[in-house]
């Protein structure tokens, strides 16, 4: 009897540990995606404040409208999956707005270079998350996979839009792009943990 009780306890502890690990993975995914979509919303808000009345204004507005929808989606997923948002949201809000305004003040091409860099980084990140969810349990996380895949596709569209609007003509394009990507990867790492 004691041996059977011990085996049941061990199995239950293993299952709880697995569920906890799985919840940690899902929490990281939703937490960082929510933070990233907030950042994108703030970047485009700032770019609209600077470039909204220019010829590229409608293009930025279209991307911003999609980002607003992405943010709303993750705001709905946070309570659904019982995820705590990152504590860094106030900082990402300010830093992202500054990035959007700063690149927009450098001109349309620099604003589009910012878009290319951020969207390239986030597209890669979403692809990693999709692979993780497929390996974890594609049936259980079918809805989350659909959401992330759709948003990933729209982010890739933004990336391509940036290229179509002369992002690569920005002076010091490679430096700007690599700096923004490095900052984005750092923000992802921090947001997953804090």
Give the N-terminus to C-terminus distance in angstroms. 44 Å
Decide which structural class fits the backbone.
mainly alpha
Low-pLDDT stretches: none
Please state the overall shape, judged from the principal axes of the Cα atoms: elongated
CATH domain class: Mainly Alpha
| Secondary-structure element order, N to C | HHHHHH
Q: What would CATH call the architecture?
A: Up-down Bundle
On the 0 to 100 scale, the average pLDDT is 93
Radius of gyration: 20 Å
Tally the structural domains.
1
- The number of helical segments is 6
**What is the count of β-strands?**
0
Helix content: over 70%
Reported by name, the CATH topology is Ferritin
- Sheet with the most strands? none
Strand content: under 5%
Characterize the structure shown:
- The chain has 194 residues and is mainly alpha-helical.
- The protein has a single domain (24-193), classed as Ferritin, CATH 1.20.1260.
- The chain has helices at residues 2-51, 57-80, 89-105, 108-136, 142-164, 173-193.
- Helix 1 runs antiparallel to helix 2, helix 2 packs antiparallel against helix 5 (142-164) and helix 4 packs antiparallel against helix 5 (142-164).
């Amino acid at each position: 009897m004691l041996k059977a009780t011990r085996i049941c306890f061990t199995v239950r502890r293993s299952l709880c540990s697995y569920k906890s690990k799985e919840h940690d993975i899902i929490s990281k995914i939703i937490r960082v995606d929510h933070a990233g979509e907030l950042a994108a919303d703030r970047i485009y808000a700032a770019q609209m404040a600077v470039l909204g009345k220019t010829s590229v204004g409608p293009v930025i507005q279209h991307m911003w409208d999609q980002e607003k929808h992405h943010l709303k989606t993750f705001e709905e997923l946070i309570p659904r999956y019982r995820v705590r948002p990152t504590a860094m949201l106030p900082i990402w809000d300010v830093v992202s707005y500054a990035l959007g305004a700063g690149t927009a003040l450098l001109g349309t091409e620099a604003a589009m270079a910012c878009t290319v860099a951020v969207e390239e980084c986030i597209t890669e990140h979403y692809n990693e998350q999709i692979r993780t969810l497929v390996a974890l349990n594609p049936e259980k996380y079918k809805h989350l996979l659909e959401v992330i895949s759709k948003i990933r596709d729209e982010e890739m569209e933004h990336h391509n839009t940036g290229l179509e609007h002369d992002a690569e003509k920005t002076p010091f394009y490679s430096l700007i792009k690599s700096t923004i990507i490095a900052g984005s990867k750092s923000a992802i790492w921090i947001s997953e943990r804090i």
